[in-house]
Amino acid sequence: MSKCSKTNKWGDIDMGKRFTAAFASALLAGTALAQAETITIATVNNGDMIIMQALSGAFEAAHPDITLDWVVLEENVLRQRVTTDIATGSGQFDVMTIGTYEVPIWAQQDWLVPLETLPADYDLDDVLAPVRDGLSYDGTLYALPFYAESTMLYYRTDLFQAAGIEVVDQPTYEQVRDWAAAVHDPANDVYGICLRGKPGWGENMAFLSTMVNTFGGQWFDMDWNPTIDSPEWREAIGFYVDLLNSYGPPGASSNGFNENLALFSTGKCAMWIDATVAAGMLSNPDQSQVVDTLGFTATPIAVTPKGSHWLWSWALAIPASSDAQDAALEFISWATSKEYIQLVGAERGWVSVPPGTRASTYANPEYQAAAPFAQFVLDAIQTTDPIDNTLNPSPYTGIQYVGIPGFQAIGTQVGQMIAAALTGQMSLDEALESAQRSTERTMRQAGYLR
Amino acid sequence: MAMTKSANGTAQRRIRYSAAARRKGSRRQVNTLPLVSPSVIVLFLWMIVPLGMTIYFSLIRYNLQNPFLTGFAGIENYEYLLTDPALWTAMWNTLILVGSVLVITVVCGTLLAVLFDAEFYGRGIARLLVIAPFFVMPTVSALVWKNLLMHPINGVFSSLLRGIGLEPIDWFADAPLLSIIIIVSWQWIPFAFLILLTAIQSLDNEQKEAARMDGAGPVSMFFFIILPHLSRALSVVIMIEMIFLLTIFAEIFVTTAGGPGLATTNLPFLIYARALLDSDVGGASAGGIIAVVLANIVAIFLVRAVARNLDQ
Amino acid sequence: MTKQHQDKLMITGLAWFVAVVIFFPLFWMLLTGFKTETEAVTTPPSLFFAPTLENYEEVMRRADYFKFAWNSIFISGVATLVSLMLAVPAAYAMAFFPTKRTKSTLLWMLSTKMLPPVGVLMPIFLLFRDMGLQDTQIGLIIVYALMNLPIVVWMLYTFFKEVPREILEAGRMDGALPKDELYHLLVPLSLPGIASTALLSIILCWNEAFWSLFLTTSDATPLTAFIASFSSPQGLFWAKLSAASTMAIAPILVFGWMSQKQLVRGLTFGAVK
Q1: Residue B23 covered by a domain
Q2: Residue-number span of the structural domain to which B280 is assigned
Q3: The domain that contains A281 carries what CATH number?
Q4: Which of C64, C122, C234 to mutate to test the interface with A (most CBs of A within 10 A)?
Q5: Is A81 close to C213, i.e. CB distance below 8 A?
Q6: Rounded to an integer, what distance in angstroms lies between the CA atom of residue A309 and that of residue A195?
C-alpha cells in the first residue's frame, strides 16, 4: 500500500518536470530502450570508494547487461554537484554517494527511491541498527550503507610509553590536554594533538559539535534559538582553541580529515581524535608508517557522554530522477553486500574492508585478526544515539550536525568564524558572537524564527 | 606621449575621412548589421536570458534544499544580503585582491620585460620558463602552491625557512589574503610579461640608439623612452587582467574556502557560498545582480579610462 | 673580459635566476610526481631519489586520462573556432565601419565577462537541463564560445585596426565585395593576429574549471574534472596529485611553448604595438 502512495508522489515530481522536459524525454525514451543499460555513479574519492571502483569489474562480469560509468570527485565538489542535480531533477546520476545528513532530508522531499524490496540474500537485519535508522525516513529505508563510522582517539604507543602515560578506557578532555602537553615535541616534528581545523560543516564543525555536546551545549534550544553564545559553547571552543594553539601542528586551521590522516600516518601527531574509519588506513602498512605503534581509545568526554562521538555513514542512494532504477538497485545492493565485503577481504586484505555496516563483518574471525580495533569500533557505533544527543533536550536529530536543510550553510559559516578564532584573526568572543548573529539571521530567513 | 597621441589622432581622422569619402565616391553602402549582429545577438541572449532568470530568482524564495520555502520575496533577498556584514568585507577583499595583483603583475611584468629585452645566454629557454605559469589551470596551480610549497609542515617554503633557522610561516592561517595574492600574481605575471616584452621589442632600435647618443642612462631611458611607449600595452594588460581578476574563484575555493573567517571571501566566493553551500538560489541571485551592477560601474569608470588610451 | 661581456654575464645570471624561481613550482610538481608518496612528504624534501612511475600507473588505472584529454582538446578547439567565426565579421565591421555605438558595444561585451559565473549558475543549469545539453560536448562548446567571445572580438578588433586601409581600398577599387575583402584580404593579412587570438582562447577554454564541473557528468568531462577526482583524497596524496596535475597541464603547456613565437608575433602585430 505504502509503495503505491510513493509512486504517486514521484508522479508529482515528474509532473513538474514534464512541462519543460516532455519533448526531450519523449525523444530520449525511444532510443534508450534499445541498448544495454548504463548507470552513472557519483562517488567521493575516498579510499574505500576507489577500491569499489577498482573491484567493480566483478559486478559488470556478473551483469553483462549493465555498464558502470564512474564519476569520482572530491567531497565538496561532489556534494554540490549531486545537490544541484537532485534538487533540479536533472537525472544525470543513477547512483549517488550521500551521507546520513542528506538521506532523511532528501527522502522527505521524495527525491530518493525508497528501498523496499531488496534481494533475498541481502540480509538487512545484518546491517547495524543505528546505521540503518540513520538512513531511514518515516521507517522506510532510502539508502544502503557503504561504510559507517563513529569517532575515537588515536595515539602513538611509543611516545606515550616514553612519557610514562597510562591511557584509560574513557579519557576526559582534561586528561587529553595533559597528555598533549607531555608528548608535544615540535623540535622533532611531533605535535601533541591533531584536530580538525579546516572550516566546514563536515570538517571542523563535525568534530566541534561532538565537543560542544559533551561540554553540555547544543546548537539550538527547543524553540530553535541558536545557543552559540552560551557558556557551554564558550568553554568547549575556548578549550579547543587553546589546546590546538598550544599543542597542535602549524597550519591546523587548514587541516581536515585527510590532512590529519596524512600527518598522523607519517608520525607527526602524537594524538588525533577523528573518524573510526581511519583505523583501517592507519593499520595498513601501504599507507601508514605508524602501524606498529598505533594505539586507540574512546573519544574523550567532558561533562556528559551524550553526543560525544558521532555517527556517520556514506551510503548509496538512487535519485527518483534516475531512468535506470532497477539496474541501480542491483548495483547498490551488490556494493553493500556481504559478498562485496568478502571480495575486498580476499583481494585487498581484511583490514581494507569497508567498516561499520554489518554485524557479520565484525563476527568474522579473519576481520577480527586483521583489525584489532574491530570490537572497539563496533561498540562506538552502537552506543551512538542521534535522537538523544545532548545534555538538555534539543529539537533536532543528528550528533555532529543538525538534521535540517539549512545546516550546511550554518555549519560552514560558524566553522569559518571558529577557524578565524583559531588563527587569532578574531577573538573567541567576537567569533562566537558573530557566529550567533549569522546563525540567527539564517534561521530567521529560513522561517524557524520570527 | 601627448605628441604621438595627437599625431595618431590626426592620422585616424584622416583615414576615417578618406574612407568615408571613398565609400561615398564608390557609392557603396556597407550594411554592417549582418556582420555585427550574430555576435551581438548571441552575446545578448547569453546575457539577457540568464540575467532575466536571475532577476526573477532574486525576487522569490528559492532554496534548493528546502522546497517548502516558496513564494514572492520582494526585496527580502536584497535586504538580507545588503545588511549582511559579509558583503562589505567581500567587496573590500575583492578590491584589495584585484588592486594588489594588478600592481604586482604590472611592476614585475615590466621589470621582467626590460630584463628579457637584453641579450643573454639561453634567452629563448629562460623565456619559456617564465611564461609557463600562464598555461596552468588555476585549480592545479592552487593545489600545487597549497600542498607542495606553502604547506606549513611538508612544504618547500617551510623547509627553506627551517634551513636558515627561522620559524615556518603558516601561510593560509597567518596571511591568507597575501597567500592568495601571491598565487594569483604568479599566474598573471607571465601574461603581463609577454605583452610588455612584445611591446618593448617593437620599440625602434633607432629610437633607443638616438636616445643613447644623447647621453641617456638606462634609468632615464626607461622612464622617458620605454615607459611612454608601453602605455598602450599596459592598458591592455590592466583591462584584460581586471576582467579575469574580478571573477577569481578557483584559487580561493581550493586553498582557503574563503577563510579563515571572511579573510579571503571575495564577491564571487560569497555568491558561491550562498548559491551552493546555502543552496539559497534567491539570495545568490540577488548577489549576482549586485555583481552585475558592480561590473557595470567598473566598466563605466575604469575600463572606459583604459579604453580611451587604447582607442588612440 | 670586456665590460660588455661582463654585463651580459650578469644579466644572464639575473634573468636565469628569476626564470628558475618563477618556474620552480611547476618543476617541483613534476619532480614530486616521480617520488613515492612517502618521499613526497619527507622533511627536508629530497632532491635526489630513485624516480618511480607508480603514481602515473595508479592515476591511469583509476581514470581514463585519454577520454578527459580528448574532451579538453575537442571542446577547446571547436569552441575557439565557433567564437572566431562569430567574431571575425563583427570585428571587421567594428574596425572598418565604426558607428557611434561601436565603442559602447565593445565595452558592453567586455563587461559581460565581469559577472562571476556562479551568479548565473542556476539559470544556465536549468536551461541546459531543459534543452538536454547537460553532459554534452556541444553544451560546453556553446558556453565556452560565448564566454570568450568578448575577448576574441576585442582582440581581433585591435588587430584589424592595424591593417593598412590602403590595401583594402585598393582591393575595393578592383571591385572586391565586402565578403571578398574580408576573407581574401583582411583574414590573410591579419593571420598572425587571428592565430594568437585563437591560442589565447584555447588556453582560456582549457583552464576553465567552473562550468566544466557543473555542466558535465561523464561523457563530456574535460581535464579539469579529472583533477577534481584527485584533489584532496584520503591519506598521502601529494605524489599522485602531482602526477595527475602534470598530466592535466602537460598538453597545454607543450602546446603553449610550441606556439609562443606565434603568440608573440601576433601580439606585436596588434593590440600592443
Answers
A1: no
A2: 75-310
A3: 3.40.190.10
A4: C234
A5: yes
A6: 14
* Whether residues A83 and A94 fall in one domain: yes
For residue B50, pLDDT beyond 90: no
Substitution target in B89, B272, B278 with the highest count of A β-carbons within 10 Å is: B278
Q: What average pLDDT does the structure give for chain A?
A: 88
Query: What's the DSSP call for residue C186?
Result: I
Q: Quick one: what percent of chain B has pLDDT higher than 70? A: 86
Tell me, yes or no, if A412 comes closer than 8 A to chain C by beta carbon.
Answer: no
- Tell me which residue of A150, A138, A144 sits closest to A105, measured CA to CA: A138
Residue B22 has a pLDDT of 45
A450 located within any domain = no
Residue of B nearest to C16 (CA): B126
In this structure, the number of other CB atoms found within 10 A of the CB of residue A22 comes to 11
Question: Which chain C residues are within 8 Å of A13, Cβ to Cβ?
Answer: none
Q: Is residue B154 part of a domain?
A: yes
Q: Which residue of chain B has the CA closest to C10?
A: B120
Q: Is A71 on the interface with C (CB under 8 A)?
A: yes
Residues A301 and A435 in one domain: yes
Give the residue from A353, A370, A387 where a domain finishes: A370
Average pLDDT over residues B3-17: 40
Residue A99 DSSP SS3: strand
Q: CB-CB: which of A28, A74, A266 is closest to C41?
A: A266
For C236, the closest chain A residue by CA position comes to A262
State whether A9 and A59 are in the same domain. Answer: yes
Residues 5-44 in C contacting A (C-alpha not used; CB under 8 Å): 38, 41, 43
Residues A221 and A277 in one domain: yes
Distance from CA of A254 to the nearest CA of B (A): 7
Q: Is the per-residue pLDDT at B14 higher than 60? A: no
C61-269 topology per CATH = MetI-like fold (1.10.3720)
Is A286 in the same domain as A417? yes
**pTM of the shown model:** 0.84
Q: Which residues of C touch B267 (CB under 8 A)?
A: 116
CB contact under 8 Å between C214 and A88, yes or no, is no
Note whether residue B14 is domain-resident.
Answer: no
Residue B223 grid coordinates = 622612464
Domain count, chain A: 2
Does residue A105 carry a pLDDT above 80? yes
Residue B37, in any domain of the structure:
no
Q: What is the pLDDT of residue C1?
A: 59
The CA angle A340-A260-B250, to the nearest 5 degrees, is 90
| Mutate: best of C11, C114, C146, C260, partner B, most B CBs <10 A | C114
Kindly report the nearest CA distance between residue A9 and chain B, in angstroms.
Answer: 14
- Which of C99, C241, C268 lies closest to B198 in CB terms? C268
Any residues with CB less than 8 A from the CB of A103 and at least 6 apart, and which? Answer: A112, A134, A135, A136, A137, A142, A143, A315, A317
Distance CA A88, CA B279 (A): 12
Can you give the residue range of the structural domain that contains A439? 151-309+374-445
Interface contact C114-B295, CB threshold 8 A: yes
Q: What band does A34 get if pLDDT is binned at 50, 70 and 90?
A: very low
Residues A78 and A97: their CA atoms lie apart, in Å, by 9
Q: How far is C237 from chain A (nearest CA, A)?
A: 8
Interface predicted TM-score (ipTM): 0.88
- In A269-321, which ranges are E strands? 271-275, 294-298, 312-317
Which stretches of chain C score pLDDT less than 70? 1, 175-178, 232-233, 235, 268-273
User: Residue B119 contacts by C-beta under 8 Å, 6 or more apart in sequence?
Assistant: C8, C11
Cβ neighbours of C230 in A, within 8 Å = 45
Chains B, C: CB contacts within 8 A come to 301
